[in-house]
């Protein structure tokens, strides 16, 4: 059961594999159980699992322990089914691994586009890189950029699909940027207020300045703060989300409506107004640790998110997965496991041709 739930360490996995090779009695019992397990249809098992409870259990188990496997059914299986299904998943997963073992997410670099149109590219590894550009000195190291410059014109930081990055602004505000995100900012803020614009997803820890407010512009609203921490997500066209972790923010929608958030609330801004509700911190903030959760997602929506999250194009066969909903998580460091679990959970097959992942 621990193996099924992803709770085994690589060392423990190796012990089992070694015993299968060295102990004929153990191998015989294993094969007999797996044969029984394969008589049960995996798809039937997957449909029997309660996805919400399974994902909640997985979240709780991830917190105090080492990283787990990436898909909800592994965790839920331990609670609801017997050993036979464990073997069914074990062998199916190995079969799936044959198609997914060569898949690897690219290691994207970031770029900075200056007001004069010139673009500076930074390599994606952790090595230090210093670039002198006119009166500006830019330093990139370990996924973080800082700079020295008095320039007040707007610069654009581009983080591509599959990447994430961290930036320290001139006032000391820290910004974490998720994949496929652009941040428009000046190297130096003006004397009266600090303004940036986000397209994508970013988490802000704003340096407190009572006499110089910090304003984040999004397509659907302006977020006005003095000193606080919050997450902004504009991935969905026509709907921006602002989740407040600490402090206070005031949102003003494009139609003029205003809403003040308290910690633990998430506002959604759309063309029709503003609404607020409590949010799950794991769901909203885990992207900073390379994790993304999803709940009852359609296959097309999931593959859109996976393309952005891993930096690889994902495609699905037309119409085959209509009506299929999936719940689970993506771990940026465990792409092969995600592909295996995608095939098992949807009942499809995954192929990777070196450029595109196809589900059919």
From TrEMBL:
Pfam families: FecR. InterPro entries: FecR (IPR006860), Ferrdict_sens_TM (IPR012373). The chain crosses the membrane at residues 71-89. It comes from the Bacteria. The keyword ATP-binding does not apply. Gene3D superfamilies: 2.60.120.1440, 3.55.50.30. Residues 157-249 form the FecR protein domain. Keywords: Membrane, Transmembrane, Transmembrane helix. This is FecR domain-containing protein.
């Amino acid at each position: 059961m621990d193996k099924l739930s992803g709770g085994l360490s690589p060392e423990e996995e190796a012990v089992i594999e070694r015993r299968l090779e060295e102990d004929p009695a153990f191998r015989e019992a294993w094969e007999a159980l797996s044969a029984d397990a394969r008589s049960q249809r995996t798809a039937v098992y997957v449909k029997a699992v309660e996805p919400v409870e399974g994902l909640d259990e997985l979240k709780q188990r991830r917190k105090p322990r080492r990283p787990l496997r990436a898909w909800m059914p592994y965790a839920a299986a331990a609670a609801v089914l017997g050993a036979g299904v464990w073997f069914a998943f074990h062998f199916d997963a190995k079969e799936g691994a044959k198609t997914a073992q060569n898949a690897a997410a690219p290691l994207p670099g970031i770029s900075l586009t200056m007001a004069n149109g010139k673009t500076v590219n930074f390599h994606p590894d952790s090595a230090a890189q210093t670039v002198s550009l006119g009166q500006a000195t830019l330093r990139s190291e370990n996924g973080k950029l800082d700079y020295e410059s008095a320039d007040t014109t707007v610069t654009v930081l581009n983080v591509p699909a599959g990447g994430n990055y961290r930036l320290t602004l001139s006032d000391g505000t820290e910004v974490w940027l998720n994949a496929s995100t652009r941040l428009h900012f000046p190297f130096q803020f003006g004397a009266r207020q600090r303004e940036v614009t986000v397209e994508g997803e970013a988490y802000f820890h704003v340096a407190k300045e009572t006499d110089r407010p910090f304003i984040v512009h999004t397509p659907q609203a302006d977020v006005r703060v003095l000193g606080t921490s919050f997450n902004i997500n504009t991935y969905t066209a026509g709907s921006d989300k602002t989740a407040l972790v600490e402090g206070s923010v005031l949102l003003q929608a494009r139609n003029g409506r205003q809403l003040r958030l308290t910690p633990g609330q998430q506002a959604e801004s759309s063309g029709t107004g503003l609404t607020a509700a409590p949010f799950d911190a794991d769901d909203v903030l885990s992207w900073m640790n390379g994790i993304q959760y999803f709940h009852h997602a359609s296959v097309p929506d999931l593959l859109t998110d996976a393309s952005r999250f891993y930096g690889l194009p994902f495609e699905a066969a037309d119409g085959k997965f209509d009506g299929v909903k999936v719940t689970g998580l993506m771990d940026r460091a465990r792409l092969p496991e995600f592909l295996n679990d995608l095939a098992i959970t949807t009942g499809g097959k995954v192929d990777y041709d070196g450029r595109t992942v196809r589900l059919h």
